[in-house]
Amino acid sequence: MKYKTWKLGEFLYIKGRIGWKGLKKNEYLSDGKYRIINGESLTKDGIDWSKAGFISKERYDESPEIMLQKGDILISKDGTIGKLGFVTNLELPSTVASGIFVLRNLKPAIINTRFIYNYLSSIYFRNFIISRTEGSVIPHLYQKDFIDLDFPLPSLKQQNKIVDILDTILFKIEINKRINNNLAA
Question: Which regions of 71-135 does DSSP assign to beta strands (E)?
Fold first, then answer.
């Protein structure tokens, strides 16, 4: 089925840590009340909170534009680009390191956030990343890449059906992984 395409940037809030505010590794704390997600925290299974670091309240407060909210999508933009995370819960106030974009759905009445996430998990987006980074010495995704990205947009009802199917499959995969881990232990 063919759907009308739209610019992804029409639906998303897209922000990353501003370079001059970049955190240095020596500013990470061993424990604290404010988390920071770095590239290592984004795994093939999403966000690994045990790999997230901690920062001071001052460093957290200086960048309100990247303070995480439930439902945010995180994507790595430097190095190993395209690693994804979906913020389903926030036990502590959290933010992102400089190698990650925060994507936030601005039009939930038109587009399902999980639909966006699943699209970014698809082979179509992987091919887009490859097309943007082939031949690059240092792979990098730019904010403009997301703003100008054409993507298909079915009706919200169709999006919800697609999301229900994909989330059910992902839930079953997660259960199987847990069973396998228990058997291996």
Answer: 73-76, 84-86, 94-96, 100-105
DSSP string, 119-157: HHTSHHHHHHHHHHHTT-SS-B--HHHHHT-EEE---HH
pLDDT in tens, 85-117: 999 999 999 999 888 999 999 999 999 999 999
Type of residue found at 101: F
**Calpha distance 3→148 (Å, rounded):** 17
Name the phi and psi angles at 69, rounded to 5: -130, 155
| Mean of pLDDT values over 55-71 | 94
CA distance 78 to 136: 12
DSSP E strand boundaries for the chain: 5-7, 12-16, 35-37, 42-43, 46-47, 53-54, 73-76, 84-86, 94-96, 100-105, 150-152
pLDDT at 185 over 90: no
Two tokens, residue 42? 């984004």
